[in-house]
Amino acid sequence: MWEYTDKLKDHFLNPRNVGEVENPDGVAEVGSIACGDALKFSFKLDENRRIKEARFKTFGCASAIATSSALTEMVKGMTLDEALKVSNQDIASFLGGLPQEKMHCSVMGKEALEAAIANYRGMPVKEPGEQIICECFGVTDREIERAVRENNLKTVEEVTNYTKAGGGCGNCHEAIQRIIERLLSETGPVTRPKLSNIQKIRMIEETIEREIRPSLKHDGGDIELIDVIGNRVLVATRGACAACKASDITLKHFVEAKLRDLVLPDLAVEEVTS
Predict the structure, then answer these.
(1) Catalytic one among 61, 105, 172, 244?
(2) Domain 197-271, what fold?
């Protein structure tokens, strides 16, 4: 049984902004009912070209409904360029985390947002030359490539969790594996300059302040850096995070993921009481 956070349950049971925007500036539909998940997203801009209204209609599971609801709340007040910076990981973090098997719901939300903005700007949604890899769910090679790059995926199972590709008949597993291997060979091993302990601590502090704390404070939570011992980052949760049952998910899938991506790939976040 999957573990759902209280915030995800709230957005599922009490979804915000359900419906369609009247005379929208941008609208898009992604997924398909035949594949099990579908999302229609629409928005309207105010006089300052910021998103004034965003609405959704979703066919899918609790996670699909919750991520769609969360997305409409997150992008209100943003410019389109700011909205395009919202990642599927941001959507998952907004809800306090998602089960890995349901991360494809956050990806669907991100794709719907981008497609609606492309619709407003009169741009094509699909890139020329895209090829469908997973016939069961209509997932293309470019969609798989993007999910692998943005989420650092390394296995077919992870690709399935994030895109649903490979979750049907399984005939595309070899093609997905070839895409993963090609992308890994292109990027090669990441080499980073050796950091002194002072540099490492400073980078961790800056990343927490710039990339992590604003998202946590948005939901009434916070985090405090207690100590750094080798590659162990000791932190204490504050505010709403301290009482949240899903704080361990937030620490691993948001805080630790950000620090590994922006500071060092070997960092491990541990919660302590202080």
Answers:
(1) 105
(2) GMP Synthetase; Chain A, domain 3 (3.30.300)
